[in-house]
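REQUEST FORM: STRUCTURE PREDICTION
Request ID: SP-0412
Submitted by: Lab K.M.
Chain count: 1
Length (residues): 290
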Amino acid sequence: MDYEGFIIRPPSEAYSLLLQVTVGCSHNKCTFCGTYRQKKFRIKSLEQIKKDLREASHYENMEKVFLCDGDALIIPQTRLDEILKLINDNLQNIKRIGTYANAKSILRKSVDELKKLRDLGLKIIYLGVETGNVELLQKIKKGVTDEQMVEAALRVKEAGIILSVTVLLGLGGLEKSIEHAIDTAKILSDMDPDYVGALTLMLVPETELYEDYLAGRFVLPDKFGFIRELYLMIANSNFTNCYFTSNHASNYLPVKAYLPRDKEKILKMISSVINEKDLSQIRPEYLRGL
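STATUS: Completed
RESULT:
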């Protein structure tokens, strides 16, 4: 496989074929993210994608494909249709194709276009929400409003594609911690996604947010402050049927819960950890990572 640069994927795509169809991120301006800073965005050639798929056709037990890099959905519809057809033609046992997407790229597709992608195998979209706070969305240079984020999420759901969103604990710093948590709970409720992954902010050198941290303009909550945000997000969210996790390596308190079914139980557990300052439940610093 012809991979250019560092490749990332969601934890749930651990056993997927990682097919790089774009290089970098079409937005690449978020102040907290350094993943694609060294890559100039471009769509990979169809010839290279065909070559990678010919190689992958010899792999065994491939049931899922994840389209890399940061936003494959930005690819024009006709080309993306062709890529998905090539995947189906070359890999006979594929049950699911997934991709990262940002709200802008989703909104470039109509519901009918998204439905066509679904019929070609695109069964899950991962959307980075980060926060529901209007001021923070501007500050981190997310490039979209909260209303656009919700509209994009609802469009994915209307198309019958599984929606998995991520949010970032600590993104508001100590100053905006509570507002960030409560506003994020609201946007999650409005989206009503199938999955939510709450990650904990880890500052990355050479990013704008890291420079703010070094200059004292951004102060992180302590570990129990991060966990308090997790509590507030769950407590103030209302879902139809959502699998909510904070089991990423960045998190201090691993949580897995089906909401609303497990809401009271999980809030009781988180509250106990906070009130008792129970370090036995906390992931040690040396085990945390991006």
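NOTES: The mean pLDDT is 95.
Reviewed by: T.R.
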